[in-house]
Amino acid sequence: MTGSDVVNKLLEYSMMNPKKFSEKIGLLRPQAIYDIQNGKTKNISPSMADKIISVFPEIDRGWLLTGEGEMLRESHSTYPVGNAAVSADKSEMQQTQGSPAPTTENITNLIAITREAMAVIREQSAQMNRLITQIEESNSILKTTILGTYTGFPATPTDLGVKNPPPTKSMLK
Question: Binning pLDDT at 50, 70 and 90, where does residue 44 land?
Answer without folding.
Answer: very high
